[in-house]
């Protein structure tokens, strides 16, 4: 679980001031990760798979436009639910050097705010000294 709070300064446009009130709230993640260990000729291979569900309960974001002739407030919900799945592996060559890679997908489940679906990937090397 994580608590999210944003504080945004007012913005001055020509003829208007904009106040932004970002909602604060909790983000929760529930997930499972399954990992294996395989000894191969070059080191230890650790494949894994994971599945996560995210839920945000942050309320509404409000933008208020204040001008010389009036004020207008625009509200938008920011609650969401999203799913994520990923597969990856780590190849440990020595206690000091390992390579890793992961590919995953994030998608919208529901809520007031829409989470944009996306493919995610990472590759890297980890060196300890």
Automatic annotation (TrEMBL):
Signal peptide: none annotated. NCBIfam families: autotrans_barl. The lineage of its organism: Bacteria, Pseudomonadati, Pseudomonadota, Gammaproteobacteria, Lysobacterales. It holds the Pfam family Autotransporter. It comes from the Bacteria. Gene3D superfamilies: Autotransporter beta-domain (2.40.128.130). It comes from Dyella japonica. Residues 1-129 form the Autotransporter domain. This is Outer membrane autotransporter protein.
